[in-house]
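User: Structure tokens for this complex, please. No commentary.
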Amino acid sequence: MAKQLNIFVENKPGRFRKITAILCDAGINIRAIEIQDRGEYGIMKLLVSDPHKAHMALTDAGLAVALKDVVAIVIDDQPGGLLKLAEAFEHRGINMVDAYGFVIESTKQAVWCVEVKEPEKVTRQVEDDGFRVLQDCELYEY
Amino acid sequence: MDITFWDKERETLERSQLEVLQLQQLKFTVNQALKTRFYQRRLARAGIHSADDIRTLDDLQRIPFTTKDDLREAYPDKLLSEPLDDVVRLHTSSGTTGTPTVIYHTAKDVNSWTNLTARGVVATGASRKDVFQNMMTYGLFTGGLGLHYAAELVGMAIIPISSGNTQRQLKLMKDFQTTVIHATPSYIMHIHAKMEEWGYSIDDFALSKAFIGAEAHSESMRRKIEELFHMDVYNSYGMSEMNGPGVAFECVYKDHMHIWEDTYLVEMAKKGTDTLVGEDEEGELILTTLQREATPLLRYRSGDLTVLTGIPCACGRTHRRIHRIKGRADDMMIVNGVNIYPEQIEAVIMKIPEVGTNYQIHIDKTGSLDRLTVKTEIYSKMFTGDVNALDSLRHDIKEKLKASIIIGPAVELHEPGSLPVSEGKAKRVFDNRPKIEV
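Assistant:
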């Protein structure tokens, strides 16, 4: 299962730099990033090359970090690619807590990363529907 | 100047006669105290077994001080000296770390409190001709009910609106041509700030007087309110332990507050010590109840810093005066008139597992009102990564604090270790309000 880092960040100048600097020092590569803003604070969500190592580096620096399971689903990077997945979600009655997408190979493949209540069940369901779900290591090497 | 009295004989009693009365009433109070479980033991240790052991007013000094902690320890009934059947009312304060304090009143106690507060009301020149809008909170807080009873006894037409709801305050002030209001100075300033917004001007009102209390304020604040509203503003002093409002009140000369010495024995101690100081020296006000039946208090340390002055007042009252309160001897904070101890906030925060042990309390002025902000840190190990959980955590902290300290503060969540920790005893409270110049 793919792991995402959820980091509690105060909304003030320098915080983004601090986090990226910690990850850089630990030799971590960032694959995707999303920020959930709540005004005074927010949650920074990162897909990185080595989530466990990154988790340790960030925790050591005193940050509040949680490792979350996410479902990383491969879709076609062309019109209707995401629609196909959306239809599968609707059919299965899957509700997303949060989601973001990124392109792996332009015009060919993209990844839709979703936070759901039951990641393992959703993984099984979308695989049954013919989608490819990326494993943790796969995601970063892809 | 027109001087009016509520109880002229008592208010102008010769000092020598006043002292005779004080000694007689001190014996009464000691007798009442000996009926309580709390004082029985304490007075026995001081060698006082009956009221006869008090021969002169100086014997008061044989009795140890009573503190707020004593009141908490005595909660709920170790300081009750009369059967509960004879109690007609009780007032509790919000409790630091969960334990409140309680003062019981018999019918006679309520009556003497009411008469005492009526003295203050009448000393300002207010009378039965006035329309009185009482903007202090009614309920366990003594400010609302205390003045209400006194105003009713004086015969004023009372609008018992309590605090808050500024739009309605303004409407009633205009519609009923209110002449006297009772509020905290910051609330009166808030009303002024909102006047224009709701379409009122000073000409809509018939205000002539305001009684202000429940929070420390400066002479310049008083002058400012007087100028803004074209009315006379009188300072009043009280605390729930000594009934509530009415302990001391300014007369028409507005030159310090007469403290009713037939009802309270006044002593002053040097801040943070047990050393008594005399007149005209700053110290902590220490009071002994002389009239109260149900909850006698001996040498109660108010925590309020002031100066006692014995210079005769032109109004003819023989009761000495105290200066406006200069601050607190302890760490109590007064936020929009509500008394709060930092420990109350700490106790709530420490029970919530998702927040760390470091926190800060900030008090700021926004407009004329105080704003309380509690800054807490997220506890790394309890962090789930869920933004909705953070939102509900913040809400949860706010609600729990509100339940404990009455007012709902703004709650900020910070990263672990981001609140500065000072050396030694951490500085937790940051009172950023402008200093009161006395």
